[in-house]
Queue: 3 jobs
Job 1
Amino acid sequence: MLFRSGYYDCALAVAPDNPNKIFAVGISAWKWEIDSGWIQMNGYSNTNYVHADMHTVIFNPNNPNDFFIGTDGGIYETQDQGLTFSAMNNLYDVTQYYACASTYVQNLEAVIGGTQDNGSLALTGTGNNPQDAFAILGGDGFCAAASYYNPLAFFAETYYGATGRSASGASGGALFYDKHIDASPAGGPDSAGIYPEFAPFNTPFLLYENMNPNTRMDTSFFLGKCQALWMTKAAIDFSITPKWYRILNYSSYSPRCLACTNDGNTVFLGTEGPNSVYRVTGLNYVNNNLDTSGINFNLTALTTPITHTTLNLPIGTGQVPTSISVDPMNNNHVVITLGNYSAPYGNTGPVHVIQSFNALSTTPTWTNITPTPNNSTIAIDMPVYSSIIDRWNPSLIIVGTELGVFVTEDGGTS
């Protein structure tokens, strides 16, 4: 019924006309009566399909045989107390996206995104309806990326770091790991029986591409797994299996967010530990031919030219970095957003958004720029989940919060 996911999808209801009839939903839908016990109501036929991850059961107050189940895949109705079900989702657009990405090469515009239990979807405007989407991968979708160098190269993932790529702007993204980085769910054994590090349910990845027309083309793909950060230089080369390099070891906390400088030489990683934001610099040293022997993939022991730094942030215990943004025109300008409530008070109130203008220095300094609502004198004390620094105006910073979107046009002063 719940398959160990009752913390996420679980609801109980009692039939309005019979207190001895109980309905329980989670991964699947069940009903219980004294005479018959538990009976599963849903299946995979056209007449009894209900999308998995069910969260609520609502009865029609005028008809005890008629009730609705709310799921990750929309709303389903039964008019016979669970013998048959019908989807009620026409024009009902509420899919939850974890992340999205776009490419805007002329005549090849596309938007892709990872959704909650509705796959990783791509909208290319080429279907019968411009809003039609097709699935790159199924299941739960999370991070997404599209290449500017090759606008038909899409990247998506499902749970536990299973990351796929598509070469033709179409469905069927395939895994592209080599033997050193494991793709199996929950860090299961690889072909050699080795148990590598565990990847979180929602695993962050990042596609970097050099957009400076005066320098050479350069691509890096970063993947954060528990205890290690990996990268490859050949993510958009579909003629080979890319070589992966381990570039950072860290504690057992799960990775949460990634950001890269505009030259590709430095990457920042935020994890679910206290004060756990890491910086790796010197990545221009890495290339696809660095490990010709197949045994020199672990670069974590290097101290030059690659360096590893744990950043000391002015944040409180229990605060988790939720996003990191690097100014596209200034690698030293970095914004980090933080989750949780009851943040420690700085000079300007709670700390949920911090900013640095010397983020590449040995000891960066940070300023609290947490938004203050127009009708208040105290900064918001709630999770801030996302951020972006405008490419052409670095004083324009946008953050996403539980109270909506906040914008500053003066670098956080107001």
Job 2
Amino acid sequence: MSDGIEPGGYILKKCSLSNHDGSKTVSIGDMINTIEIEEDISKVCIQGFITITDAVNIIDNFPIIGEEILTLEVEDFYEEVVTYQFHVYAIDTLATNNTGTMQVYVLRIYSKDFIKSESVEISLAYRGKISESVKSIYDEHFISNKVIEIEETLGEQTFVVPNLTPIETILMMASKSFSDVYKSSNFVFFERKDKYFFGTHEKLFEDGQDTERKYFYSSVNSDIEDRAEQMNKIQAFSLNKRMNLLEEMRSGAAISRVIKLDLATKSYENLDYKHYERVKDYKHTDSITKDYHSEAFNQDFFGEDNITNDYLVFQDSTRQDQQSYQDIVSQRLSTSYYLNSIAMYIKIYGANNINVGDLIRFELQDLSSANDYTKNHATLSGLYMVSTIKSVYDGTRWDMTIGLLKDSLKGEGAE
């Protein structure tokens, strides 16, 4: 850790703009008021904005015309340095002072790969494993130097891509991917600071089980002298979502039906899916989880007579190169719903060692134990997956607001 950077501090080691061919570069670090960077699993690529006070009219003299690459290097409390490269795609919220000698404006920035992807349409047929097709698309169309981690998919398929961007194509393939290792087949695709990831949320759960990242929140106001421990103290938290029965019922997460139509034999088959009967087939944030509902409630509200969500799946029994969509649709929709069923936000000091897709251990004081400050909340404490990170750098302080997801409440006996 750094002796020169306090918890919540940072060093902006580099902030520069380069034109399209790299022939011209200008440092703008001393012009910056604030920087905001957002990472989000659901938005695929990293994006953000910076607010600039411009007294030398760099906006016209450089000029900034939507072709520029913004390079940021940020050092954190642990002396870890991360380099970002963004494409500047918009200028807005422009204002001037009374004499017209100074401008304040916002530069909107996006991952270079996203801008590149928006300039390309794919109209090709891909044959083979989806995971291999994803690797081919990434190698051809993504221009960053990041690696991509790809979880292997099962089955040989033929895809005809109907004029989609590379990112849209990979997202489409994610929705049709099948895993025989992680039964949810809930594939996601997103960018982190260090890499891209294409795989199931269950793999993220399994990979993160041994995490040593631990953050704690207590209602007790105590001064923490240890600087490293201050980095693990949650400044604020809000539980945005814990349960919504109506959403659960309307989404078909608990029970649904796939109607499999065989085009060759002109026949159909009803396949009913009950999540509460399959829940133990999946990896979860915690090793032991609580049931979503009682057995009696499941029988009364989530039985075969309560199915309101039907999904049509077309099959051709004479073909061998097709996907088992009947084993994907309900599982993916249900596990995706429950993955977002428990959500909270925490605010901590900024650090470069946290990425979306990571698991962290959240320790919350037991709200019913007013005098026992060492006892953790029985169900809400435990492992959470990081779904969003919003970093705000204001010149002297770096705060991170982190979105956390949990697919079920922790059961008795879980760590």
Job 3
Amino acid sequence: MKKYLIVELLLISLFSCTLDSSENPTNRYLWVPILGSGMGDKTVTIYFTDPRPIANYVAPGPENPEYFNLLISEDLVKFKIFQRLDAFTDSLKITNLSNGKPYYFKVSAQKKNLDSVGSNTVMTIPSIMSKIEKYSLDVNFSMENAKFSSDRRYVAFYSDDYNGGNNARDLLLMDTATNEVSTIAQDVNMGNWNPTKNTLVYGSSTSAGGNLSKYKLMVYEVETKTSMELFSMVSSNLLIGLVNPLFTPDGKHVSYLLNNDRSEGVRYELWTYDLETKEPLKISNFEGDGFHTFGGYGWGTTGSELYIQGNYDIQHGEDNIYKFEPDSKSLIPIIESLWDNGWPSISPNGTKIAFLSYRGGNPVWIYDLETSKLRELAKMTMLGGMPSLPQWADGDHLLIPIYNKGINRWEINTIAVE
């Protein structure tokens, strides 16, 4: 999950590199900015960030470029010079673009007698900005990874500042009708709601003595305020993982990703647990397919397919989003790009996918399954902070927890999709 929330760390890892002096005998080279982007009605703003404060360079360090060439493409294949810029430009607003059309930008740093250096590539789609509003909850504490029950009365969340301070991995429950908050469990791996009733599923881990840990799959009944263990396992392997438990659309099964064999390295498989027969069933063969996934998936409306993030190159590949059909075990690419794409959430009518993708910032995107078109819904520059996992409030709105750096708190917002 953190892979899609901490964009600053991603930027540091991308640009904290050193140059091999054997490839540049004079040890002279240029720095190039990190690009970000923002969009509006027929407009795009490109942001240029100097990476030198966070990057490591071979001494004596990079030289200043004489200028930048900003390049533009409409197909990610053919780039052309759009504008020559001063080397210390921090932003540029571009107007008279077409709404709904993808544009790609990158820059090359230029200086006489030195090799040009290229930047990262950003993608943006101009459109009229979506309406963003604070969700009307009267709270004065952080609500991270907030998930609402289907009737919107209850919200499960994490908080590190509730009641004067709290373990950030404790799962809390708020009754929005009374504002009463209670603790469901400690050291929890994400809670998700049953779409048919007010029941919450979550994974947890506790000490089993010595170097042993006990991993449990749990269900919490709101009406009775009780938790029930579905199954558990004990292991000394710290890399055991039970990730992202979800109810299937009919509410009769719980699905989850499980990695319980670490001899071959990290490899999660998808399982379901039948709530009536109490039998687990592995429904994927990701190891045989060479597919790697680490947590983000969502069921389609019929329960015959789900959408899952992952890749076929764990060392170098970007995460893309695939449709997985348990009956045939087939993985069909749906959203592929040069950028990571993750945490898909399917609209109530099954026609759209909301997801997170770092194509020029920390944005929320919408993919239309009927038209195969993308829409850039919001970026950090619009949201005022980092968004967490999107959840559909209805067919026209998303509920998104956003980290507001100004007040050091997660807040719940709604964003209009249409």
